[in-house]
Amino acid sequence: MRRWVKVSVAAAAVLGLGGWIAQPYVHQWWVIRTACDGTLPAGAVRDLIPEDARVTGTEAGGVKALGDYGCEVTVAGDHSADWRLLSLYAYTQRDDQDREFMSAFPESGFDSQAAMPDGLPGFVSRFGTLEFLLPCPDLGKDADGRQRKLLVHAGVSHSGSWRRPASYEVAVSFVNSASKRLGCGAEPLTAPEGVSPVDPADDEPKTVPLASARDTACGWLAGAGLPDPTHWKLDVQLTDAAPTGGCDVTIGDVATNGGPEGMDFVAWFGDWSNRLVSGNDSERPSLTASARCAGEAAHFALDASKDIPGVDRAKKRELLRAFAAAQVERRGCTGLEVDA
User: Fold this and answer.
1) Which end of the chain, N or C, is less packed with Cβ atoms under 10 Å?
2) Residue range 22-51, pLDDT digits in tens
3) Are 21 and 166 in the same domain?
4) CA distance 71 to 62
């Protein structure tokens, strides 16, 4: 990050406000109020700070011409050194965005992820970070003719109280601020009310019967012709605004005469995903499909248990096509092809 400006509690005491600003409570109020150039909701930031910790400093900066902007907020406890509570970064350059996607999906596109609430254009990464991707109408197209976009990485330390609605409130405020600062021109987002982030690594999947998910991006499974359809459970991890996500289905012990079996259908939207389906290494999915969505590549893949009664390779390929076709229809994509 370039041209960062640091504000610390010590610095706040010499801003010319005399003894009033020197009070410990006012120190906290001032540093929180001015964090990220004063764009974050102060109440939400306070909700994320552990009871035994205090804010010790903030840093913010970036260069519009280079397409980056970021903010960090550090805290410390009574008996601990400084640690980073908030790590908020925004990028409009493709190389920076590809690096963020590489971190979320270093080798396989099947790394853990979770859906954000409907309407938010992003996903929760395997690290629990909130990743947003929005089109930038005011930035036009890049040299390859692709709509330029804004990627925002919002990390709230797991040492803090991150499983609170305040995480989305802070992240969305930063997205809207970064869009203005970098000249993106994206439609402002609204934080969901009373919704906390999901932890893809630790949370148990919230599964529902197939018939209950007809109105979701995974609703196609309700009519996909799965054997014993009432025995399947679905974890919806995909929304229509997200750059990636999936539909995970499992069938229990009774129907399989053994342990639970399952299938993971995953979609990746954007040229950044080409590397996930290229090459001949072991990480490349064996069943894939592709299309063109909003002028960029889109890829779809299936990872499934080997021995699912009534679901052989031909059926898996049929299901992958149905998954891809449903997403193509929902997003207005073209050129669907299922790889051999």
Assistant:
1) C
2) 456 677 788 888 889 999 999 999 999 988
3) yes
4) 9
Is 168 in the same domain as 279? no
* Residue 92: pLDDT over 90: yes
**Count of domains observed in the chain:** 2
Of 162, 181, 200, the domain-final residue:
181
Is 271 within 8 Å of 263 (Cβ atoms)?
Answer: no
Q: Both tokens of residue 135?
A: 């089109």
Domain shared by 219 and 150, yes or no: no
Q: Write out the residue range of the structural domain in which residue 171 sits.
A: 4-181
Quick one: residue 333, left, alpha or beta (phi over 0 = left, psi -120 to 50 = alpha)? beta
Whether the CB-CB separation of 56 and 75 falls below 8 Å is answered with yes
Q: How far is CA 274 from CA 57, 94, 268, 291, 326, in A?
A: 40, 14, 9, 11, 20
Instruction: Tell me: do 246 and 141 sit in the same domain.
Output: no
For 219-270, the DSSP string reads: GGGGGS--SSGGGEEEEEE--TT-SEEEEEEEE-HHHHTSS-EEEEEEEEES
- Asked if residue 187 belongs to a domain, the reply is no
306 phi and psi angles, rounded to 5 deg? -75, -40
Q: Which of 102, 118, 207, 209 is nearest to 168 (CA)?
A: 118
Question: Closest Cα partner for 46 from 25, 30, 26, 32?
Answer: 32
For the cut 70, the answer to whether the pLDDT of residue 13 exceeds it is no
Q: Is 291 helix (H, G, I), strand (E, B) or coil?
A: strand
- Please report whether residue 72 resides in a domain: yes
184: three-class secondary structure by DSSP = coil
